[in-house]
Amino acid sequence: MRTTKRVSGELVHGLLLLFCTQGCGDGGTQPAPVAQHLNIVALGDSITSGLSSDQQAVPYPTVLGQRLGDKATVTFVGKPSAPTMKLHVLQPEDVSKGVPANLDSQGGKSFREAVLEAKFDDGRGADLVLILIGINDVALWERSDNYSETSLYRPAMAILRLKRISQLALDAGVQPVLLTFWSDGDEMPAGGKSLQAVAEINRWILEQAAKDVPGVRSVDVAKAITGKPATDAAPTKDEFHDGGFLHLNRKGYEAIADTILVSGVLKPKGK
Fold this sequence. Notes:
Distance between the termini: 26 Å
Number of helices: 10
Strand order of the largest sheet: 2-1-3-4-5
Number of strands: 5
CATH topology: Rossmann fold
Structural class: alpha/beta
Strand content: 5-15%
CATH superfamily: SGNH hydrolase
CATH architecture: 3-Layer(aba) Sandwich
Largest sheet: 5 strands, parallel
Helix content: 25-40%
């Protein structure tokens, strides 16, 4: 398992002071306190992996681990271009259709193996899983059968799989945190169905997920990256994208980490 490099408590304290004098999140909010050491898995696609044309960009899980220092260990798993279908939580009838359903960046490990059964250096498992995935479902749905409502990539199916992932995590004692995502401004025509799909999934994450799966938490990182509500399906701010509007530069990935840091969601299940 790949883990982020830890830094000293003194350095973390200095970093947090620096960030909050310059403004943390909306309105300079102070970082929420972390009561105990946390083991965190960040799950996603190329955005979680930190894909960028900016050579100074660092994946947001690594930034988050640096910000938290000795208060947490953060690792990340996923695969560039992966939709939710890659998380190995499909029903047998879905798998029987020949749909790929594994987390193949981890050597074929399933979501349960890579996240729920993962062991950290302290011998414990994960306390939280941060889930930032969905944009590739929209992209694949856009390309399949002219937005066919039978496509396994349609928004309703992506939402269904996010429900399953969240419930699996809760049942295993791991706190799921769903993160909103943004549109690919280069690829998605204004007013098109793909933008509507991004808005639909984000709306579910923010407004309905906690009702459908009691106990799940959410953070609107898309608002920090785009400057608009996640349900607007807006592209990234110029200051955050790497030239392509979907993937981020160094400041963009740092903004994701800092938004999570001040959100108050970094607590174990039931806390």
